[in-house]
Design goal:
eight-stranded parallel beta barrel; 748 residues; seven-stranded antiparallel sheet; TIM Barrel; Vanillyl-alcohol Oxidase, Chain A, domain 3; alpha/beta; 23 helices
Length: 748
C-alpha cells in the first residue's frame, strides 16, 4: 500500500479513571512534556468509574498549552450532534485550535440503552453517523447565513442557527472497521482511527483500499484522509521503532497513538521512539521521492484550479498551508468583511522569510496580488478574483519591548494580529493603542494607512506612534525601517504602506491608560443638519480625552430618523467625563444614553476572522475642518437621498494635529472630522457625493475609500504626493503593490 506522505504525529490514549480525578490530567501533561502531539481519552459515558470525557477534555485543554486533545472516540449515540458541534467549536476556540473530533457510531448498546440512548443496528449506526457529520459541519459553517436544515432519519435539525466557527478546521476522525463505515470515512471524514488490537492481518490494507476507492469516487484525494492507529506499548524500543516505520511506509499510517497510562512509557514514546521514526521515515521518503500529502488534491479540487496560476510551483514551505478553490478551508479565507472574493490561491506564511517566498512566487504568476492582515478593511483590497492573496494571520505575536517610554511602552506587534487581540493583551499592562472602533481590524492595514480611532483625539493617529516596521520589499528583501534605517521608506509606510511592501511587524508606542468612560447615545435626527453642526461644535470644544463617532442609519418609511453616537473619554475621571458628555447630550433631542466605565479592551473586543463578504459596497470619504452650517447641510442632504445606505462622521484632530503635514505620508493634520458614506454602486453614489459633499471636503481617508481614480491621489496625499512618488520609484519601481490605492511610480 502507498505511503500517503502525511506528516507524522504521535499521541497518547489514556483511561479517564475517576479514582484519582487529577491522575489523567497529570498523565496528559506528561504527554505534552514528552513532546507528543495529541492526547486522547476513551469515551464511555455509561461507565461510572470514568470521568465524563468531554469535561476531562476541557480541563486538560486548560491545563496544557500546546498539545491537541480528542476523544478516542466520542460516543455519538449519547451526544446530540448539533450540541456536540457547538461544544467542539467552543473548545477549539478556547484552546486556540487544539481540538480534534474523534467519533464512533456506538457499540455497547445495552449500556447505551441504559443511559437513555436508542439501540441501532450496525447499518443504522452508520447512517446516523453520516447525518451527524452533516449537521456538525453545517453548524461550523458560521458564514452561511441560511438556517441549517438536515432532515435525517436519526438526526435532524430544522432551521438551526449556525456557529460559532472553530478556531481552525477541526478534523473529524472515525473509528471504523466495517465496509460501510470505511466508505463513510472516505467520502465524509478527515481520518481513519482504528485500534491495532481489533485488526486482523491484512485489515489495514483492505481498509485503506476501501477508503481510497470511496474518496476517489467523491472527488477527493486519498491523501486528504489521515491514517491514525491506536497501538500498544513495546518493551523493546528498537523493535517498536522498526514496527512503526513499517506501518508508516507500507500502510500509510501517519499518526500513532499509544494506549498507556504509564508516564515512563509515554516519555520513551515521545522522547525516543517518535524522533527516531520521524528520522527514518524522512530519509526513506527522500530516497523514494514521496510526494507530501499536502501537495495532493482530489479531482474536485483540481478542477477548481485557475489556469493562470502554477500550483506546482508553490514553495515547499507554503504548500502545506496553502488554500485553493475546492479546499474545504477556502470559504474561511476567500472573502473579507465587506468584499466578496474568489482568489485562485491563498498563502499563509508564518515567518518574514516565508512572506518573501510567497511574494516571489506571486510575482511570477502575473495575476492580481492581495495582502491581508485582518480582512476587515472597508475598501476591500485584501481579496481579489483569480489572483493570489498573502494572508498574514500567522504573524500575530504581541510582545512588549524594553522598559517604559515616556507615559507608555513600546510594543512589537505582528501585522496579522487584530486590534481586539492587541487591546486584550495590553489592558492588564495598563496600556492601549488607538485603533479604530472594531476589534476585528488587522494591525497591518490600519497601522500603515492612518488609524482614526476612538482614542484618536487623545492619542493621535495610530501611524503617529509607529517607531519601526519590519517589511518585505518588492524585491524580496527583509528590512527594518525607522527614522534611522531607510527613513524615506519609513516615512512612506506611515500613510501609504500598502504601496511600498508587505509589513510583517510594527513597533508602536502604547499610551498609559487604565479604564475609560464609554458612552452610547441615540439622538432624534429629524433636524439632521442642526444636530451635526451642534455635535461638531461640542466635540471641538471638548477636552482631548473625548473622541466621538456619529452614525446615521438609513431611515425606513414610517420610521423616525435617529443618530447613534459612540464616545470614549480616555480616562477614569468620571466627573470630567460627565461634564464633557453633557455637552454632547445638548446637541439634539436625546432618546437614549448609556455609559460605562471599563477597559478599552471592553470596547474594542476581538472579532471574528470568518468573513463572508457583505454586499460589496462602494464608499466615499472626505475630511473637513469643521461641521459648519454648509457642510452639515450637505451631509444631511446626502443622508436624505437614496445614494447612500450608511453614513458616519468620525472626530479626528486633537493630538493628530501635533505633527506637521509632511511628517508622514499621511498629510491631513488640520481637519477635525472624517465623513464616510457607503452605497451600492459608484454610479449611484458618486454623482451625489461629488456634487453635494465633495465641494466641502479637504482630503480623503484611503482606508475607507473605494474611488481609486488617479485624480483622487491628490486628495489622499496632498502636497506629499511628489515625495511619495519618489519613494515608490525607489522601493517598488515595477509597481508590484498596485492593489492598494495605487501610486504609479511613473507618474509626475
Amino acid at each position: 500500500m502507498p505511503d500517503y506522505g502525511q506528516e507524522l504525529r504521535f499521541g497518547s490514549f489514556l483511561t479517564p479513571t475517576n479514582a484519582d480525578p487529577q491522575q489523567p490530567v497529570r498523565v496528559a501533561q506528561v504527554s505534552e512534556q514528552a513532546g507528543l502531539d495529541l492526547v486522547t481519552f476513551q469515551d464511555h459515558p455509561y461507565q461510572p468509574s470514568f470521568l465524563d470525557t468531554w469535561t476531562l477534555l476541557s480541563w486538560v485543554a486548560a491545563s496544557t498549552s500546546r498539545i491537541t486533545v480528542s476523544g478516542n472516540v466520542l460516543n455519538l449515540p449519547l451526544r446530540q450532534p448539533a450540541v456536540l458541534a457547538r461544544s467542539a467549536a467552543s473548545l477549539d476556540l478556547l484552546s486556540s485550535g487544539r481540538f480534534a473530533l474523534g467519533l464512533g457510531a456506538g457499540g455497547f448498546w445495552d449500556a447505551i440503552e441504559g443511559m437513555g440512548g436508542t439501540r441501532l443496528t450496525p447499518g443504522e449506526g452508520v447512517t446516523a453517523l453520516g447525518e451527524a457529520i452533516e449537521i456538525i459541519r453545517g453548524i461550523w459553517d458560521a458564514g452561511n447565513r441560511r438556517p441549517l436544515r438536515v432532515d435525517g432519519r436519526f438526526h435532524a435539525v430544522k432551521g438551526a442557527k449556525r456557529g460559532p466557527a472553530p478556531a481552525h478546521d477541526i478534523p473529524i476522525w472515525l473509528g471504523a472497521y466495517k465496509p460501510r463505515m470505511l466508505r463513510l470515512t472516505g467520502t465524509s471524514a478527515d481520518g481513519w482511527l482504528p485500534s491495532l488490537a481489533y485488526l486482523q492481518p491484512g485489515d489495514l490494507q483492505r481498509g485503506n483500499a476501501a477508503i481510497d476507492e470511496a474518496a476517489e469516487k467523491a472527488g477527493r484525494s486519498p491523501a486528504e484522509i489521515t491514517r491514525l492507529l491506536n497501538i500498544g506499548p513495546q518493551g523493546d524500543t528498537g523493535r517498536w521503532i522498526e514496527e512503526l516505520v513499517r506501518f508508516a511506509l507500507d500502510d500509510g499510517i501517519s499518526t500513532f497513538i499509544v494506549a498507556s497510562d504509564d508516564p515512563t512509557t509515554l516519555q520513551t514514546f515521545g522522547e525516543e521512539v517518535a524522533p527516531a521514526v520521524r528520522e527514518v521515515v524522512a530519509r526513506e521518503r527522500a530516497g523514494r521521492g514521496t510526494v507530501a500529502a499536502t501537495a495532493r488534491r482530489g479531482t474536485a479540487a483540481l478542477a477548481a484550479r485557475r489556469e493562470e496560476i502554477d500550483y506546482d510551483a508553490v514553495p515547499a514551505s507554503l504548500a502545506a498551508s496553502a488554500v485553493e478553490p475546492g479546499d474545504r478551508g477556502y470559504a474561511d479565507v476567500r472573502h473579507n468583511y465587506l468584499r466578496s472574493g474568489r482568489p485562485g490561491l491563498v498563502l499563509l506564511p508564518s515567518t518574514p522569510a516565508e512572506v518573501a517566498e510567497a511574494l516571489g512566487y506571486a510575482r511570477a504568476q502575473d495575476v492580481p496580488l492581495g495582502v491581508r492582515s485582518g480582512g476587515h478593511g472597508v475598501s476591500g483590497r485584501s481579496t481579489n478574483d483569480g489572483g493570489v492573496v498573502i494572508d498574514l494571520r500567522k504573524l500575530s505575536a504581541i510582545e512588549p519591548l524594553g522598559g517604559a517610554i515616556g507615559d507608555g511602552r513600546r510594543i512589537r506587534i505582528g501585522a496579522g494580529a487584530t486590534w481586539g487581540e492587541v487591546a486584550t493583551t495590553l489592558a492588564p499592562l495598563g496600556l492601549a493603542i488607538s485603533s479604530g472602533d472594531y476589534g476585528g481590524v488587522g494591525v497591518g492595514g490600519l497601522a500603515t494607512t492612518g488609524g482614526i480611532g476612538l482614542l484618536g483625539r487623545a492619542y493621535g493617529l495610530t501611524i503617529d506612534h509607529v517607531r519601526a516596521a519590519e517589511i518585505v520589499t518588492a524585491d524580496g528583501r527583509i528590512l527594518r525601517a525607522s527614522e534611522d534605517e531607510h527613513p524615506d521608506l519609513f516615512w512612506g509606510l506611515r500613510g501609504a504602506g500598502g504601496n511600498l511592501g508587505i509589513v510583517t511587524a510594527l513597533e508602536i508606542d502604547a499610551m498609559r491608560l487604565g479604564d475609560v468612560v464609554y458612552s452610547q447615545m441615540v439622538y432624534d435626527a429629524t433636524d439632521t443638519a442642526g444636530l451635526l453642526e451642534r455635535w461638531g461644535a461640542a466635540v471641538e470644544a471638548s477636552p482631548r480625552e473625548l473622541t466621538s463617532f456619529l452614525i446615521l442609519p438609513p431611515v425606513r418609511p414610517g420610521q423616525q430618523a435617529v443618530a447613534q453616537l459612540m464616545t470614549i473619554f480616555a480616562g477614569d475621571d468620571t466627573a470630567a467625563a460627565i461634564t464633557a458628555l453633557e455637552r454632547l447630550a445638548d446637541a439634539g433631542p436625546l432618546l437614549d444614553h448609556k455609559a460605562y466605565v471599563l477597559p478599552y479592551s471592553g470596547v474594542v473586543q476581538p472579532g471574528d476572522r470568518h468573513h463572508q463578504g457583505g454586499g460589496d459596497p462602494v464608499s466615499r470619504t472626505g475630511l473637513v475642518e469643521h461641521l459648519d452650517q454648509a457642510t452639515a447641510r450637505a451631509f444631511a442632504d446626502l443622508a436624505r437621498s437614496s445614494a447612500a445606505y450608511f453614513l458616519q462622521v468620525r472626530a479626528t484632530g486633537g493630538a493628530a494635529h501635533d505633527l506637521a503635514p509632511d511628517a508622514t505620508a499621511y498629510p491631513h493634520r488640520h481637519q477635525n472630522f472624517l465623513l464616510t458614506a457607503l452605497g451600492r454602486s459608484h454610479a449611484q453614489l458618486d454623482p451625489v457625493w461629488d456634487a453635494v459633499v465633495a465641494p466641502h471636503t479637504d482630503g480623503l481617508y484611503l482606508s475607507f475609500d473605494t474611488d481609486v481614480r488617479p485624480e483622487r491621489l491628490v486628495d489622499a496625499f496632498g502636497a506629499n504626493l511628489p515625495r511619495l512618488r519618489q519613494v515608490k520609484r525607489a522601493w517598488d519601481p515595477d509597481n508590484v503593490f498596485r492593489a492598494n490605492f495605487p501610486v504609479d511610480p511613473a507618474g509626475h
